[in-house]
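Protein 1 of 2
SEQ + STRUCT:
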Amino acid sequence: MDDTALIPKPSLSSRSIIEDQIAATETSKPTLFSMKAQMLEQGRTDTVLAATEDLSVRLKVYASGGENELHAHPDEDHVFVILQGSARFYGPDGETQDVLANQGFMMPKGMLYRFHATSTDECLVMLRVGTPNFQGQAKDDRIGADGKPLVGDTKANRTVPVVFKDGVYFGD
């Protein structure tokens, strides 16, 4: 059997994350998912693993040094569980929290934060669980520190092109 068939396809744009997450809600049966992911030289990926109308489960991969901009999700509580690597989370007043593999960090809805991958020899791999799913959130589900919409896959959110590492995977 082709092992690549077991690797969930990452959503490479903000629009595709929403579409993939909504599509995942179209079942009323239990969902088995794989947390296998291709590692990165540069950029970040976000893979929808499972979702209901009330909950989403995604796998996020950041290349070493990868980061995002200060933002909040006004209608979504979510948690990050570090599976590999490490990250530093920042609050709106510059406060920091380092999070290591096998630790988690919960973000209440409306909390401004950003993070970057601090591990230098491996990618940051995180499980992200949020509630509610996009159907239960406002149209502008992600806002910047200025209170204006901040689309996830933009230069303003420190997005860089994704470059995959050939043949290197999390979950092998």
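Protein 2 of 2
SEQ + STRUCT:
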Amino acid sequence: MKWYENVVHVCMGVQPGERVLLITDQALAKEQDQLAKTIEAIGPAELRRWTLPEQERPLKVAPPELLEAARTFDVGIQFLGATTTAEQPYRLSLVQATSEGDRMRFGFGLNIDQAIFDHELMADYHEVANITNRLHDFLQDRSDVHITSPLGTNLEFSIKGRIIATDPGIVRTPGFGNLPSGECYVAPLENSANGLLVIDKSFPGILIKKPIHLTFEHGRVVEVSGGKEAKQLLAIIADGEKQPNGAGCRTIAEWGIGTNPYARITGNVMTDEKVMGTIHIAIGHNAMPPYNGQNLAPIHLDGVMGNPTVTVDGELMIDNGKYLV
């Protein structure tokens, strides 16, 4: 099975008679053709293709016709070969429209290269879904989370009352999911995080050599330290704080657990946060499904760390990166 067949048939489950929205940038024009031929062979009612106009990038919002398609079509697939945090508002506008319509199942991948097509998008997503769903079941109706690591992480927060979300790679219900997939995640209570978080793998666009230390108080990052990587992160946060809802850039947004055995640490959050044996903590926006949080921000930044030990309501869930459920 080719990667595009895996995406269309296994991940998205495109069916005859469905309306499908297919988006790429110019860098992935060939891949758009491969996906389109696979979709057309199924017999969709409509296949609408769109390529991001390079001269207008970074886009700040999707055009009205795409937003309407996100509200009314059955399936959406978007792969971008190159994008940055400056284009997050465009991507969030599509996610918001998908949520408003509550009809389309939307899978998307960012900064996708040939290695991702060859590795993460060739995963056995039935295996990924099995791992993801086991973690989901364990976390249902839980409250207190405590995370430590050999590098000094000692962070506590609450997930009481929050919906446990999954990104198993098999998308059959309305909403959005990542491609490649493989995580179980939740939005912690926004004012609940306290302690030290040490990120040693990556933030979006930052492959970390010297770990970044983030100190949380009452849910917000109050101090960031480290090397040049910490300065890069602070610059992204500072830029976000100048934008509408910028005050939310430092608030905890997500705790996620990687569930894809085929994923690699590359510096691309699309692969890094899926790696088995890692967790990620995000700051920024989460006021949308499937996070269902309450924090508004112009950015959402996932920090990936390795070798976590996680206790939930006093019960050991992950021991130095080994899953016990």
